[in-house]
Amino acid sequence: MKARVLVTLKPSVFDPQGSTIAEALHSLGFGRVSDVRQGKFFELDLDVASDAEARSLAADVAGRVLANPVIESFRVELPAPAAAAESGR
Questions:
Q1: Is the dihedral of CA 36, 38, 44, 48 positive or negative?
Q2: Residue 6 to residues 29, 45, 49, 59: CA-CA distances in angstroms?
Q3: With a cut of 50, which residues of the chain have pLDDT below it?
Q4: Residues 24, 48 contacting (CB under 8 angstroms)
């Protein structure tokens, strides 16, 4: 099962890379972009039997290895079940 982990800086942490990207976008004519916060994206292949196990394992990995809890937050996403994804077409 795959899990995605998105790691971003906490809102209170200054993001110089995000500010630089926002300035570049403004200079390219994308003035309606008001702010940019950069982050990291990880895709994990997990050998687990359930969504609950996947979410728990991914959160444990993220909290202990992928994110710095002092300055970063993370979010775990699991793919939608195949049946639900197909019914939305």
A1: negative
A2: 28, 15, 22, 11
A3: 83-85
A4: no
Residue ranges covered by each domain of the chain: 2-87
Tell the CATH topology of 2-87: Mth169; Chain: A , (3.30.1280)
Scanning the structure block, which residue is given the tokens 């002092």?
Answer: 70
Backbone angles phi, psi at 61, to 5 degrees: -60, -45
What was the pLDDT predicted at 80?
84
**74 pairs with which residues across the strands?**
7
- The CA-atom distances, in angstroms, between 54 and each of 5, 23, 51, 82 are 11, 38, 5, 16
Cα 32 to Cα 17: distance, rounded to the nearest angstrom: 18
Which letter does DSSP use for residue 64 in this model? Answer: I
Q: Report the pLDDT value the prediction gives residue 81, as an integer from 0 to 100.
A: 72
